[in-house]
Amino acid sequence: MDIQSSGAAPARDELPSPAYVVAVRTLCEFTARQGDLDLRYTPAPTAQEGQAGHVLVAGRRGDGYEAEIALSGDYGVLRVRGRADGYDRAANRLEEIKTHRGRLDALPGHRRALHWAQVRMYGHLLCRERGLTELELALVYLDVASRRETVLTERLSAAELEAFFNEQCERFLAWALAERSHRQDRDSALASLAFPYASLRTGQRELAVAAFRTARDGLCLMAQAPTGIGKTLGTLFPTLKACAAQRLDKIFFLAAKSSGRALALDAIDRLAAGAAGRLPLRTLELVARDKACEHPGRACHPDDCPLARGFYDRLAAARADAVAAAGRWDRPRVREIALSHGLCPYFLAQELARWSDVVVGDYNYYYDGNGLLYALTVTQGWRVAVLVDEAHNLVERARGMYSACVDQSAFQAALAAAPPALRRPLNAVRRQWSAWNRLQTAPYQCHPAVPAAWLASLQQATASITDRLAETPVGMAPALQRFYFDALHFIRLAEQFGSHSLFDVTLAPGRRPVSTLCLRNVVPAPFLAPRHAAAHATLLFSGTLAPSGFYRDTLGLPASTGWMEVRAPFRPTQLSVRIAGHISTRFRDRERSVPAIAGLIVRQYAARPGNYLVFASSFDYVQRLAEGVREHGGQWPIWVQTPDMDEAGRAGFLARFVEGGQGLGFAVLGGAFAEGVDLPGSRLIGVFIATLGMPQVNPVNERMRDVMQARFGRGYDYTYLYPGLRKVVQAAGRVIRTEHDEGVLVLIDDRYGRPEVRQLFPAWWRVGPGADEPLQRR
């Protein structure tokens, strides 16, 4: 929590002193913010600029100036501590230094209120420590561009500062005591929490024991566990049980898809139901802004969105209502509370993250460069356990988080929309870009570094846009805005460019060729490692996490990370694994492979009618195979995934897999139906996979292969083989979902017979004879 408990709590009157330790900033963020939510873009200094600004201001002061003064003081059972920026003894002035860009009056009012509250709190602590009777307080705002200071001052007596300090502490302490009581009730209930079913499944118990030990001992663990054993409940339950003993503040359950988040919320509901409603656990669901927004198309400031007006004035009441109705703070519930108080649901959820026990959300909330949960973990000093669902997806997702592209066509649109004052710096970018294009000798090229002259022109252009926004924060043309933010992201990653990424240029032909410049992350390990280190414990689990070295290397996991393979609860006789080794599905062979694959599917379906899924490597191949089955005499129901299939279309596709049904669904391997889909019993009795699943051989993947080879000595395996077989095993996992299911898996490609491929199959698979003879029900 924001409050660090010193131990188990007796009744309020018996609490030791101090029972709570809280930072000045944390306390003031709770008690002092007021006014509107205003997210109009105002250029902010970087962390490095902020640190440099503090050093600059301190250097301008006299010899008697004290910088970075550690202060603390008690209010009853509350200990408040922090570090004041500077004290000028000669002037008897305490300073709080804040850096900014451009017009100071563009600073939102709620931030100004927070700054005054902080310096007043520090003022009281300084007066009490040094016996001062009065003090001048100063907010020193430093413009990092001009290096000009704007100083706002007030002089207060020690008595006035004490009254302010006491008022803030009393407002916070009332909440803190309630939070302490909640924490005690939560930990007590979790200590006695029982598993909601009579017993754990085979394999689920093994996973649960490992999860408990991971949380208990502060470890990092990768667990490969087969689909269908109940991984979500098998990881959440033991981690919750470890909360009290390990003083865990939060559990973050991170998933790649909404289906994974739904499973986590349902698992906690089952645990609460098993506790007969006596589980005081606050479970928050975080969703994307576009899904939570009540007024799409409007900006997040009081002049455009009514839910931003007076946001901080009404936040305390909404927060109190949420806590009073503790339980599942999912999207509908948060929306209900938010709208009842006239607040934005998305930003109310962001605030509730501070007061939740379990947060369920997407990977990006912790692993992205701007991840909310990671930032709060660091600033608040939380002790957290991170559960990463279907963790094999994190490699590709993290690559996207730490990659950036700038497109010359988008730049040209931005240039056309730019005001005259910005034309000069943008034209400099245009000239450098054109010169770089002339040096391009092929449509696609990798380069060892971003061109220095071009990058310098881009940095100057973004600085000019930033300065203009700081002076006239009235927004900008959408095309210019899009390019501006893309460019800022690109520049940030360019500053961290290294052997973990590629810099490549793709040139589109034409009378005036245009190019796209990409910083393409290949190995996200350097970016993810600090996030693993910030967590007390991390458990990554999936049905496909082998080989362990691949994930340890690419995800930046600690060298001490453990790995386990949970034994499957399934018998090898439940799944007939057959290889059609006489067919090649390589790109050059696809056309002539269609009749052979269609014949194989038709024979199997005729021998054992039911519901089957057929996976192929592309939408075109999928369509050809479906047509091939029809031409081969298959008159059964057929439904095919299409590139433009929306959420309703995907739901309709899955709805056709009914108990006792018959038909063939055709889908792309690695797509929406290849993982996270549960079709137990006769809803699905077989899967055909007509591909090895490996990424396409193209210039980009070949350069990625070079990076992998240079770093790990396993270029082909890390780029092609392991990612491909992971998709195959995930798709195959749709067949057997329970201990009572039976089905067939047909792997279609001659390469499935190779030892290096078969060693990546799950241990419980038993490969039978070839796929020439159809399998009937035993």
TrEMBL record:
Belongs to the helicase family. DinG subfamily. It comes from Pigmentiphaga daeguensis. This is ATP-dependent DNA helicase. Keywords: ATP-binding, DNA-binding, Helicase, Hydrolase, Iron, Iron-sulfur, Isomerase, Metal-binding, Nucleotide-binding. It holds the Pfam family Helicase_C_2. It comes from the Bacteria. One of its GO terms (molecular function) is helicase activity. Residues 190-442 form the Helicase ATP-binding domain. InterPro entries: ATP-dep_Helicase_C, DinG/Rad3-like, Helic_SF1/SF2_ATP-bd_DinG/Rad3, P-loop_NTPase, PDDEXK-like_dom_sf, RAD3-like_helicase_DEAD.
